[in-house]
């Protein structure tokens, strides 16, 4: 069965005063029907831009999708007209953004914002749309839907607003939902409620989910597969378990090692990723992680490694030393004390 | 100048550096043109805690629980409604004027957002030097700049940064400047209000390590306010959990995280996903229901009872008194059984 969504060599650039930034620099990945794929990375890694590019929501100028194909259910979204694209957004592909206050219209009632989507995409009449809106609110766990539908966004809490966003995303029975940092602005107990809700609904309704986040815990709890982004590229990709237990890219390794763990007693020191994230206007021909990498060799300066299959099935990494890494860091990979010593030894 | 001049004077052991007793901070809510008072937001509603010299006490909880207000009271950026804040033997809750200014040298703050807490029109050097000038710590301009360069290097920044402006720096570098500015006063106590929350994961660890190093080097004491429980576990010796203006549980860090007793602490810890898919798979998890009620009109009895999975009838009538269920382990819940 072909993938539901297949992104091929997508490039998005932004023209800024300081030069052209390749915010998304040739990424490819696929999402199967019903699965949850995480895009994880830090600020400026291109994870949000890559999601907006799928839906062609990049403001032009300054942004532009320069290359690549996005096949959704066999159709290349990049070749659609703006009108056709509008039908895809909000209908076949739902969206949930980080800040529900800014993505909801403050002067329309909650009810109107949901029925509008239904009338636009499904061509149903007001009464049917109203009925469906009530149903959707029940689905996302909002009590007293009739009263809530008459309210405005500012009358709801952050968690409630995000539930509304999910209801809107679900309104037209999408096959895919793209959630960009859906819970970053929320408190941790509310974050847990929202994520459980999304997991439950996507499983129950068979919807695929792309979740974009910087939170490694959220990825571990919810994703089937993971793409790690750094400086506009996917540097590692594979099943969540493999990525966490036998990471092959030095950035993934460093990232996982740098987070303190709630389930472990306190250690002497954290092991941060040294240095600063790269300036995307001044990338050279080599690997963009090289200046911060403990394993960099001469070849890393000469050219940028592409995403290659590793000896671990289903897992790819964009590193010349991906297959050596296991030996360099010890076979146990992450999460075992002693890895630090092995890392230190490798750089000596 | 070197490390020894920055270090706090040694004091009698055992005496806590900070002791907070019965702290309440109510903000009036007004209505209409005449500002008629219609109620209070009970941001902090009667809390007690101590911070020992040289330790880091974590203050955790979700938005609106009162953790930041508590920090602001300790800094005396707010004048508490009632209660005592005893800093090094002196109640600072009602100090004013000159005494307060003298206190500000000893208690410093590091804010969450390094973007908005640095003046964009001042160079980094001016930003760090200003408090030393204002407080007359170093009247000589040349010496002051020397001190600035030293503080920058202590915080892991190149001395050349003194000539730069905040917008030329990354978030992590700006937070280092915020730390250098706090250190400029030779403080004994620093309130760290979400100091790493705005930073990327890889940078966060650098700043956490820096805070830890500085505490050891200069004998500092921290009140560490945060919502990221993983960072708190790593950095704090003891932790207090706040909910709706109350401290619901307090214990040493490993006890609190490995053996939480209050139902809210348990819910909070369960809600945090661990970066390990295998651990996550094995975790039984049901999110706590409902949302935090308004602090203007808090629930009767125990403030957590409407969301609590183990609440019984009396919880809605009677506020639980904090109890010590094991040495140093305080829980404010009448349903928790004392072990043993």
Keywords:
heterodimer; A: 348 residues; Rossmann fold; 2 domains; 14 helices; 21% strand; B: 340 residues; alpha/beta; 8-stranded mixed sheet; 4-stranded antiparallel sheet; 23% strand; globular; disordered N terminus
Care to describe what's here?
The complex is a heterodimer of chains A (348) and B (340). Chain A has 348 residues and is α/β, with parallel strands linked by helices. Chain A folds into two domains: 5-223, Rossmann fold, CATH 3.40.50.300; 229-347, 3-Layer(aba) Sandwich (Rossmann fold). Chain A has 14 helices and twelve strands. Helices cover 31% and strands 23% of the residues of chain B. Chain B contains eleven helices and twelve strands. Chain B has helices at residues 3-6, 67-74, 97-106, 124-134, 141-154, 171-183, 201-218, 229-235, 253-258, 263-271, 277-282, and strands spanning 18-31, 36-51, 56-60, 82-87, 90-91, 107-110, 189-193, 221-226, 238-243, 246-252, 323-326, 329-331. In chain B, helix 5 (141-154) crosses helix 6. Chain B is globular. The chains are: A alpha/beta (348), B alpha/beta (340). At the A-B interface, helix 8, helix 9, helix 10 and helix 11 of A face helix 6, helix 7, helix 8, helix 9 and helix 10 of B.
Radius of gyration of chain A: 21 Å
| CATH architecture descriptor of the largest domain in chain A | 3-Layer(aba) Sandwich
| Low-pLDDT residue intervals, each spanning 5 or more residues of chain A | 331-348
Sheet with the most strands, sense and barrel status of chain B: 8 strands, mixed
CATH superfamily of chain B: P-loop containing nucleotide triphosphate hydrolases
SSE order and pairing:
The complex is a heterodimer of chains A (348) and B (340).
Chain A: E1 5-16, E2 19-31, E3 36-40, H1 47-54, E4 63-72, E5 75-76, H2 82-88, E6 93-96, H3 100-103, H4 110-122, H5 126-139, H6 145-149, H7 158-170, E7 176-180, H8 188-205, E8 208-213, H9 216-222, E9 225-230, E10 233-239, H10 240-245, H11 250-258, H12 298-302, E11 308-309, E12 316-317, H13 325-329, H14 339-347
Chain B: H1 3-6, E1 18-31, E2 36-51, E3 56-60, H2 67-74, E4 82-87, E5 90-91, H3 97-106, E6 107-110, H4 124-134, H5 141-154, H6 171-183, E7 189-193, H7 201-218, E8 221-226, H8 229-235, E9 238-243, E10 246-252, H9 253-258, H10 263-271, H11 277-282, E11 323-326, E12 329-331
Parallel strand pairs in B: 3-8, 3-9, 6-7, 7-8
Antiparallel strand pairs in B: 1-2, 1-4, 4-5, 9-10, 10-12, 11-12
Helix pairs in contact in B: 4-5, 4-6, 5-6, 6-7
